[in-house]
Specification:
Layout: E1 6-11, E2 16-23, E3 26-27, E4 31-34, H1 46-68, E5 77-83, H2 87-104, E6 108-112, H3 113-119, E7 132-137, E8 142-149, E9 152-158, H4 164-174, H5 182-189, H6 212-228, H7 232-263, E10 267-271, H8 278-291, E11 294-296, H9 307-319
Parallel strand pairs: 1-5, 5-6, 7-10, 10-11
Antiparallel strand pairs: 1-2, 2-3, 2-4, 7-8, 8-9
Helix pairs in contact: 1-2, 3-9, 4-5, 4-6, 5-7, 6-7, 7-8
Amino acid sequence: MNMHPIILAIESSCDETSASVVSNGKVLNNIIASQAVHRKYGGVVPELASRAHQQNIVMVVQEALQSAGVKTAELDAIAFTRGPGLIGSLLVGVSFAKGLALAHQLPLIEVNHMEAHVLAHFIEDPVPSFPFLCLTVSGGHTQIVLVKDYFTMEVVGETQDDAVGEAFDKAAKIMDLPYPGGPLIDKYAQSGNPKAFKFPLTSMPGLDFSFSGIKTAFLYFLRDEMKKNPDFIKENLNDICASLQHSLITMLMTRFEQAREQFGIKDLAIAGGVSANSGLRNAVTEYGKRTGANVFIPKFEYCTDNAAMIAIAAHYKFLKKDFTTLEVVPLARMPIGG
């Protein structure tokens, strides 16, 4: 077996169709086709997402192979996201990968989307040392993961209701900001006062999170203020966004810092779509400076859903000959370590 493998990886868990080629552990590219169709609906529409994947996947895979200068005959394996994600979107990627593998007699590698977010830290140097803690934050997940090696991971804390990314997006929707609203809150927050308004910080047992309470409090806060002044949001947008973002990041960092103290771990990482948030990146960086912790923050392109992280995960799976069969099916829910 070639221990310097060339692998094509496909990611289609939500609303990005992505393909990447990795050669001997070096990611050669990261092709992503985003779907603008969801903006007018204020959120991802699963049926439209799966149709867009069908339209994009051939073009995206061809571009990945061409820009890497790799022919299909040179591939050693095909990798794909099995889950978690939208079942229709996953089905497109899984089916395409299976068809390509069958046609060219190549082994298949299934990848857990959330484990891949963590392993995105191994795409480029510097990389964290095992064991490390990773705060994995996105629209669907908020987890603190104890990473013991490439595929031995334990979720030591997670949200008991909504993900922090959903809290950002729902708050943006309440303010009538266009989808996706999370990045817009981050943008406006940079010009606002983070202490202008106070929102309740929910405390959960252990290392768990809860974000449903702050969403409800935010809704009632705006409702009450707009009764007094219908232009309240327009006149205070930057301060509202800064205050909300400050509150959400405080909740994340409180648990993350607690986890670091509990496990006595020096290396800390963040991953997932919300790790692109400038407020969170700054908070983690400042914490590292203050405490001497080693902090690892991925490039923006490796924060959101992308095939490069699937590719690097597949590389390490290939080395341990961890292949799957043509009977594999997508999983909407696929827990880390599951």
